[in-house]
Amino acid sequence: MKTASLILASALANAVTATPLKWKDWKPLLSPFYFTSTYHVVATPDQVINGTTPTPGEPGAIGHYNYGINSDLDVICFNITLMGVTGGYQSPALTATHIHEAVAGASGPPRIAFPNPLPISDDPSVVRRSVGCLTGPFTTGVLANGTDTGVGFTVKEIEENPAGFFTDSHTARYIPGVVRGQLS
Ligand SMILES: *[C@@H]1O[C@H](CO)[C@@H](O)[C@H](O)[C@H]1NC(C)=O
Ligand SMILES: *[C@@H]1O[C@H](CO)[C@@H](O)[C@H](O)[C@H]1NC(C)=O
Ligand SMILES: *[C@@H]1O[C@H](CO)[C@@H](O)[C@H](O)[C@H]1NC(C)=O
């Protein structure tokens, strides 16, 4: 116990520079899940755009796309829940669940492809979820001008302009998007 607390104290002493920190400030520094920003996006069918044309997704569907970013480590953690989304996913990308770069009302390339939310209830049409973390460099499987649209992208770009990004999922029946929401 004594050794452990000495090691902890010395680690903290090394981490702390001029200004002494209170315990409540130390905790996030020690956590492996420290985020520099978080996003809670409610994605709906009415926000889906094909090019610049509103193209509503599945009626009654809703998505809760929760993200935690650590831009120092280029990590993005996700907890995505879809409700009322039916049928299989479809996208030319590696997966059909993305963060794209575009402002509200516009379309843009995917920058990150997340594992698709999968059924977690007895009724597979009702609730689907995907939880985990991804670390850059990112690939989407979509080429623009011969280059993967994830290449060179870092999550810091989201923090610098969250309104310039949206998140969505695509199904076979709603290819432009089943639900969509802006990160800000
Ligand atoms: C989306 O737009 C493209 C190009 O204008 C068009 O070919 C396609 O049919 C549209 N898709 C839907 C589902 O509206
Ligand atoms: C993901 O979000 C759901 C809904 O808010 C929550 O019940 C669940 O505990 C979360 N999972 C994790 C691993 O945080
Ligand atoms: C592809 O190249 C064209 C011409 O240089 C450019 O206008 C366009 O923005 C590029 N597309 C992407 C997605 O980078």
Automatic annotation (TrEMBL):
Residues 37-184 form the CHRD domain. Keywords: Signal. It comes from the Eukaryota. Residues 1-18 form the signal peptide. SMART domains: CHRD. InterPro entries: CHRD (IPR010895). It holds the Pfam family CHRD. This is CHRD domain-containing protein. It comes from Knufia peltigerae.
